[in-house]
Design goal:
Blueprint: E1 2-4, H1 7-19, E2 24-29, H2 35-47, E3 50-55, H3 65-69, H4 75-85, E4 89-92, H5 96-99, H6 119-122, H7 126-141, E5 145-149, H8 153-165, E6 171-175, H9 195-214, H10 220-231, E7 237-246, E8 261-269, E9 272-279
Parallel strand pairs: 1-4, 2-3, 2-5, 3-4, 5-6
Antiparallel strand pairs: 7-8, 8-9
The chain binds adenosine monophosphate (AMP).
Length: about 280
């Protein structure tokens, strides 16, 4: 398995593969890999001749410096895992100064309103940072397919919009959320939770499932109220938002007329910020 830290060496290698008509899949990650990442690295390996997995903790998408400093990282373990999956994986693990050419700053984007609610409300320029780094990766790697998780559904929609706006010649493949047996969505941030906090965190998934069960019976306001009351029983949970939104434009909905909608949740559990969502219709 090849590991590149240098941008031009990666580009030369990929140009070579492309001139031999090899297809390339791209899986962007921030490392501390778990079975969620594993599942769509596998998907890309099956669908493409080669798969580029980036491991890069992108400084421009963190609105909280402590979150950036304490973000879980274990590059040796990640490389071991990727090596065990396939020898058709190419790892890109650049230094921030290398990727940003010594100029770590944000670009400008038109997200067509997709950034207005939920994460956009609570995390400042987070999506501008994500779009900045993803644009750099797309231009550099020039892959055929990119794999993004529904776990970060708002991010996924913003990248779909970015591909259209900037006319990137790449197809985004949506990957379903992988969960532990008790329903907790896998996340690198779960590494920061102890056993009992992980158990308590399953209440976020339970809240989403409650919404799914009751969407045809209760009003959206009633669902929100019950969820907020229920979660307030746990002193470890600080709910940031629970929103039911249209899947396409991500606008919150108040009645049940939207054809495709999802329930979204963000909360701090024992000081660790977690997000999750499920499809309702
Ligand atoms: P991250 O390393 O957390 O930035 O995530 C990299 C990619 O993995 C993103 O496209 C995420 O949406 C996706 N991802 C993270 N956790 C999961 C999960 N539990 N199931 C599916 N995809 C995930």
């Amino acid at each position: 398995m090849l590991v590149f830290r240098d941008t031009s060496a990666l580009q030369n290698h990929l140009n070579n593969l492309k001139s031999n008509k090899k297809t390339i899949g791209f899986v962007p990650t921030m490392g501390a890999l778990h079975n969620g990442h594993h599942s769509f690295v596998n998907k890309s390996v099956l669908q493409n001749d080669f798969t580029v997995v980036s491991i890069f903790i992108n400084p421009t998408q963190f609105n909280n410096i402590d979150d950036l400093k304490t973000y879980p990282s274990d590059i040796d373990k990640d490389l071991e895992l990727l090596k065990s999956i396939s020898d058709k994986i190419i790892v890109f693990n650049p230094d921030p100064n290398e990727l940003y050419s010594g100029d770590i700053r944000l670009d400008q984007f038109n997200f067509n309103g997709l950034d207005k609610h939920m994460e956009g409300e609570f995390r400042g320029d987070h999506f501008v940072g994500v779009a900045t780094v993803v644009s750099k990766f797309f231009s550099l790697i020039n892959a055929d397919y990119a794999y993004f998780g529904e776990k970060d559904f708002q991010q996924l929609r913003i990248i779909e919009n970015l591909i259209k706006e900037k006319k990137f010649n790449i197809k985004l493949i949506r990957c379903e959320t992988i969960r532990s047996e008790d329903g907790l969505a896998l996340s690198s941030r779960n590494n920061k939770l102890n056993f009992s906090s992980k158990k308590i965190a399953t209440n976020l998934f339970k809240a989403l499932n409650f919404a799914k069960e009751k969407i045809d019976i209760l009003s959206i306001d009633e669902i929100k109220q019950i969820i907020s009351n229920n979660l307030s029983n746990y002193k470890e949970i600080k709910l940031e938002y629970f929103v039911i939104a249209d899947e396409k434009n991500l606008k919150p909905i108040r009645d049940k007329k939207a054809e495709q909608c999802r329930a979204f949740i963000a909360a701090y559990v024992s000081g660790v910020r977690l997000i999750d969502n499920v499809k309702l219709y």
